[in-house]
């Protein structure tokens, strides 16, 4: 009976086992190099962990084969029979680790993606809030400038008209060759400049740096709430949102309406205690679109309600007293109405109503204002 030598087979097995260890070592070194380039990258972390497990598996497998042949060639086959399940168990553990690492990093990647999305959402909200604040500052600046101009015009108009009237009368009575006439004409020229300046001041209020387009009230309400949702959640307030099932479209400026909505909702947040509730509702009534914001806060005393729309009147330590006056200004510029109902201990309800496009045209035809 001829015996076939297994030496070439054993030699090939030993060589391939060594090659597996070498390749696993190179793969681990490359994975570590990639990981060092960006240690916060979740994929690079996963690659490094898998490379470590594969390296451990290759060492376990190669070590097991070498131990096997060493025991077989030395005549200790019975020892290998006892040790082989242990070696096989190490290999199985390596495969289990690969699966566990994969599942773990899959979950971590999902969480990481959500964190990135949340960060992008927060950045977007921050940019929107910044833009709204800039818009509000622009409104405040424009209105303050216009009001100041009107006050100056009011203070200057009467004296200028009186002086102008007197100078005209004097010029009418003076003979053409009178030496005083030249001086009075110069005074009259300056009076005319004052009158022109007064007209320019009065025109400031009529100027607008924005345009009206067709906008949808429900979308603006949802957008405003989304922007200040972190403030609502931070205070533990329950927000009850009830939007109209119909589209509430009207002519207006989306940014200005959003400024008004954010300011009113933020006032409700400040007035509502932790665990309280805020109700936001939209709808249409009497041919007008409306948004109603109600809170379960402390309410507003009657003596304060009388001054709530007065500029520079504020009960807050760092308040400017310009918020609600400019909210009312925005609403009125949209031919709308704003009403506030409140009582101590009963919360506050703010309703902003806007005419639909057809209602606005009808009102213009009749010549009445909302």
UniProtKB/TrEMBL annotation:
Keyword Kinase assigned: yes
Pfam families: HATPase_c (PF02518)
Enzyme Commission code(s) on record: 2.7.13.3
Keywords associated with the record: ATP-binding, Kinase, Nucleotide-binding, Phosphoprotein, Transferase, Two-component regulatory system
InterPro entries on file: HATPase_C_sf, HATPase_dom, His_kinase_dom, HisK_dim/P_dom, HisK_dim/P_sf, Sig_transdc_His_kin-like_C
Keyword Transferase applies: yes
GO molecular function: ATP binding; phosphorelay sensor kinase activity
Transmembrane intervals: none
Domain of life: Bacteria
Catalytic activity: ATP + protein L-histidine = ADP + protein N-phospho-L-histidine
Protein name: histidine kinase
């Amino acid at each position: 009976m001829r015996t076939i030598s297994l030496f070439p087979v054993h030699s090939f097995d030993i060589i391939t086992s060594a090659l597996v260890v070498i390749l696993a070592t190179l793969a681990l070194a490359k994975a570590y190099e990639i990981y060092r380039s960006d240690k916060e990258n979740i994929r690079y972390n996963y690659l490094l962990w898998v490379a470590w497990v594969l390296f451990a598996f290759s060492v376990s497998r190669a070590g097991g084969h070498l131990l096997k042949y060493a025991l077989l060639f030395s005549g200790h086959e019975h020892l290998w029979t006892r040790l082989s399940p242990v070696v096989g168990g190490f290999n199985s553990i390596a495969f289990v680790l690969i699966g566990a690492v994969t599942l773990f990093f899959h979950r971590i990647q999902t969480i990481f993606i959500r964190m990135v999305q949340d960060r992008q959402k927060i950045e977007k909200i921050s940019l929107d809030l910044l833009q709204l604040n800039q818009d509000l500052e622009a409104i405040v600046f424009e209105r303050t400038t216009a009001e100041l101009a009107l006050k100056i015009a009011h203070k200057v108009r009467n004296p200028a008209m009186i002086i102008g009237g007197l100078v005209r009368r004097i010029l009418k009575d003076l003979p053409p060759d009178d030496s005083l006439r030249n001086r009075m004409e110069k005074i009259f020229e300056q009076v005319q400049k004052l009158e022109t300046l007064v007209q320019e001041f009065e025109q400031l209020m009529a100027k607008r740096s924005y345009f009206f387009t067709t906008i949808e009230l429900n979308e603006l309400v949802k957008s405003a709430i989304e922007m200040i949702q972190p403030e609502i959640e931070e205070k533990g307030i329950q927000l009850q949102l009830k939007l109209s099932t119909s589209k509430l479209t009207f002519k207006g400026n989306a940014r200005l309406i959003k400024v008004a909505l954010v300011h009113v909702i933020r006032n409700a947040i400040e007035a509502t205690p932790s665990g309280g509730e805020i109700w936001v509702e939209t709808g249409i009534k009497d041919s007008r679109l409306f948004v109603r914001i109600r809170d379960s806060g402390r309410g507003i005393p009657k003596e304060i309600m009388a001054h709530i729309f007065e500029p520079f009147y504020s009960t807050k330590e760092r308040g400017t007293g310009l918020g609600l006056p400019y909210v009312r200004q925005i609403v009125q510029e949209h031919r709308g109405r704003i009403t506030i109902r409140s009582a101590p201990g009963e919360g506050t309800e703010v309703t902003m109503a806007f005419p639909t496009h057809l209602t606005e045209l009808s009102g213009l035809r009749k010549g009445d204002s909302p």
